[in-house]
Write a structure and sequence with these properties.
Elements: H1 3-8, E1 9-14, E2 24-31, E3 36-41, H2 43-48, E4 55-57, E5 64-70, E6 75-81, E7 101-110, E8 113-128, E9 139-145, E10 159-162, E11 167-175, E12 182-187, H3 191-194, H4 208-211, H5 222-232, H6 236-248, H7 252-264, H8 272-283, H9 288-301, H10 305-316, H11 323-339, H12 347-359, H13 363-375, H14 383-394, H15 399-411, H16 419-431, H17 435-446, H18 455-466, H19 471-483, H20 492-504, H21 508-520, H22 528-540, H23 544-556, H24 565-576, H25 581-593, H26 601-613, H27 620-629, H28 637-649, H29 655-671
Antiparallel strand pairs: 1-2, 1-4, 2-3, 3-6, 5-6, 7-8, 7-10, 8-9, 9-12, 10-11, 11-12
Helix pairs in contact: 5-6, 6-7, 7-8, 8-9, 9-10, 10-11, 11-12, 12-13, 13-14, 14-15, 15-16, 16-17, 17-18, 18-19, 19-20, 20-21, 21-22, 22-23, 23-24, 24-25, 25-26, 27-28, 28-29
Amino acid sequence: MNQELHKSVFLVRSNIPTKNGTFGTAFCIYQDRSNYSYFLTCAHVINRLGGPGSLLLEDYDRETKICCLDNLTDLAVIQIKDSPHNIPILKINTTVKRGDPFSSSGYSIDSDTIICRPINGKIGSPITLQKTAINGRVDAWDLIVEDYYGLQEGYSGSPVFNINTNTVCGVVAIRTDDSGTKGIAISITALSEIWSSIPKNLLSSQIFSSSIDVNTSDNSNSLFKAGYAAYQKKEFSKAFDLFIAAAENGNADSQNVLGLMYVNGEGAEKDCEKARLWFLKSALQNHAPAQLNIADLYKDILRADQEALPWYFKLVQNENASVEIKASGQFKLGIMYEHGKGIPLNDIEAFEWFLKSAKNNNPDGQNKVGEMYRDGRGVTQNYEEAFSWFQRSADQENIQALYNIGIMFLKGTGIPEDDLKAFQYISKAAAKHHSNAEYYLGFMYEFGKVNKTDEKQAFNWYSISANQNNSDAQNRLGLIYERGIPGIQPNYTDAIKWFKNAASNENPDGEFNLGRMYYEAKGTKRNLKEAAHWFKKAAEKGHAEAQYYLGYILYYGCKEFSKDYIKAIELFHAAARQDHILSQFYLAIMLDNGFGIKKNSIEATKWFKIVIEKKEQLPVMKLGYLYENGKGVKQDYIIALKLYHKALLKGDNSANVAIKRVQNILSIQSNV
């Protein structure tokens, strides 16, 4: 074991009691003169531990701060005060080759004991995990673990130590198989994009991997080669000066790289206008990477879609462009047409560009073709074709395609439902931090679609997704806190907090449930005005239960609201069309009595019959009303009386009045 490596890694835990079994790894990359140390780990580790305020680094009870946390790159930097200054600082080098031997050191569980154990293996194939504005990707590699002990979840955040260079080149982020023999390493080059106050010269970004080709006809230029060599050594200022000299002599590669350095703030202050000018000089020489970069700059940073569009067209027509870069341009054109950015929205054109990109093996393009076949946008709906294209994209580990296939299996969209396959694909997407996949993984655990119901696992996955601001997961967390599960007591305060988070994200279920908490006085005083406010927001989005509750308030009226039959019947009708039985019941009553609408016995009878067909779903008190009044059924006071007694036994005290009323009727009938 490399002792320097072993001493640099730290255990990251949570101060939340329910997360005692959750942990990860971090390692030291920098110490300053003010007694601060900086540790690198994964963003998903911090999220799973409960967020920045919940961190414990080893046993250090010191001030902890998150310098940066980015879910897209899955990297985070932790700062702690007054840490020991004998912690080894691991040197960073972005140079890495397939087949390089690596070592790592991280935390795992062995017989209920957390231990720090080394892992060895080889660097595998380079892969792409996420898209960024300029580089088009976050670099990563497969890891092939050769030790008997494989990777475990606690290794997330461990350093990938390149034995050939004695430097760290990546961060262990994702475990991809049950045996632990394979994993994924995120390139730490992404730090320069997410850490605004990164110490000068700590790290350089591998901008060259997809943006230039060092084997072009211009690579004989000594200035460019010298600049590239300096850049590889992180000597930004020297590299910048050499690239300037080469660029002023017309070297297109250098001009393109200068644009990227101005975008990233390397060797010079960030300056998008200077970046644009250098990209332009290179692009006008028909340099394909520069054409892509200037188009992306206009589209993603300067928000000038009409300026971006012609450069994407120039790129896809550029015979000198590599297949990969051309495919990226084709995909971006598809996005422009799909969303009507800089050009009229046109699904047919969007599909054609996505298809060209997909045929050039662009995984994002393949996924988009699958989505358009699935949805019937720009092409005739075809689930078989959709699945085929999703699969091609998923084979390249495209996170959205993995999720899309999982949902097709889960919902049986064009293919037979298969919960096991759904779980396999959704799990892969969730492992890559796809928030919707994390939510659905929680859903599958909660509702027993994975062997058996596991509410603890459901809670954990909902928490991870909710911390990525997924509103569906936030709503489900609210429901769990409202009712409680083994290990988690009901907590109305936390339930309201999560319902509010979901509602603030315009989630109709969250809006309804927040309104319901005010209506039912759970965790707060009863507040019909506040309840009606949230019911109204959800009702306007078509939420049937919210439409019913708001209609009910307006039907009976209260201190805060006068009766409003016209609005009530409108709401009941909207919910009734969505097969909401109580709304159908009240709609029938209003039609039968002419409340808020012209009396219509024929229409009322139609709704009463619909309700009675589903009588097992109707509260017994309402069912008793139907038998008492002969609505949708033959009038029968005996059955009505039995139903009212049943309602009383269930705790509905309003049944007392109905019981006396029916008993009086039966008494009169018996005396006639």
